[in-house]
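Possible race condition, two jobs.
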Amino acid sequence: MVILLAGDSHTGKTNLAQRLLERWHYPYLSIDHLKMSLIRTRLIRLQAESSDAALTAELWPVVREIIKTCIENEQNLIVEGVYIPFGWELDFSAYYRRSVRYICLIFSEEYILTAQSDIKKYANIIEARQQQELDVAGMLKTNRYNLEQCRQRGYKYLLIDKHYYIDDKMLQDLLD
């Protein structure tokens, strides 16, 4: 099985991937790690500050083929990152889609507005990030957009509302 963990920055994709790795022993691929390795080796002309759309256009074809290879080899993998495009399923035949589970982590507007100190506090829980001010307006816009896209497309998502809490039953329901 391949699990795709999507969502906006700071929604906990990497932390959840780490939890799944520890629980199920599924390796995970951080698309951010792939991005930085390709940028540092100059295999792509983009920069870390390039737009998400430009980075997705460069990174998704590589990630897509990694996913196909895992499925063909009957291997498990968790892929996490903001560069998983809506419409990802259009890049796979039914054979591959059967083995992919998609989950989008989304903050509610209330959570973004009331839990900014927690969002900042947990930003470095797994990966070291440069400290920067949260773009609250950007987060509100992106999370609202992600929720609309998930609902329109029938994707599974986890809405983090009053408290950030994900238990095993919630995860299992999303993966079934």
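Job #2 (started ~2 s after job #1):
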Amino acid sequence: MIVIKGAGDLASGVAVRLAHCRFSIVMTDLPHPTSIRRTVCFSEAILRGAFTVEDVTAEYAKTIDEIQAIHQRGHIAVLADSKADCIRSLHPDVVVDAILAKRNLGTAVSDAPVVIALGPGFTAGIDCHAVIETMRGHDLGRVILSGAAEPNTGIPGSISGFTTERVLRAPKDGVFTEICSIGDVIEKGKAVAEVDGEPVFAAISGVIRGLLPTGTPVYAGMKSGDIDPRPVIEHCYTVSDKARAIGGGVLEAILMLQRRNADV
């Protein structure tokens, strides 16, 4: 069994890749998820009861006791368990920290026989057994068995030459309201959402790939949406290239470390 901490878009991309390899998966997230790319996030199962990304379905497990039945149906189980307390009861073979908080929020190398963490904030050999590089570029998806991933720059990866311009941020504290929807093709300068009446404008043209749902409490500067300058609407509903690469790195690390443990 694999427990994945987090059920956002990168975590969900990892889960899709592992599900295709027939692993039994449990994911954890907040009771009220704040995923941006909601159309490809298994965190939506917490809100909807079940959610499908590509050809993989996840179901909300209200309790740990429901996990087995969900797995028997061939689905991923998703728990509203912000601290992943379920790890102590489930004793998984693998734990993957896919929260992407850029810092360690409580993962320990002792959590499972194989512990893998995504991105900066972890050191392989101390916090976990392996770190997966999440920065776009030549090393994306690389398995790191000693040391850490590239440090967080605070600048989103470049897509078609755009970085920070791609990200929509809340202009102030308040409650987020959608004006546009995920999948809409919009022009630069259009108001795509508002926070207590103050508009959130698009800095570039493209397709809205991610957007918080109406009613989400936000704070000033909080990431609230994502615009892809490549106006391919289908990309809004499939796992991204980045998530697939990271998922491949997680799969490689699991097989490598399980084999190493078996040889000890």
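Helices lie at 9-20, 44-48, 67-72, 86-90, 241-263.
Logs attached separately.
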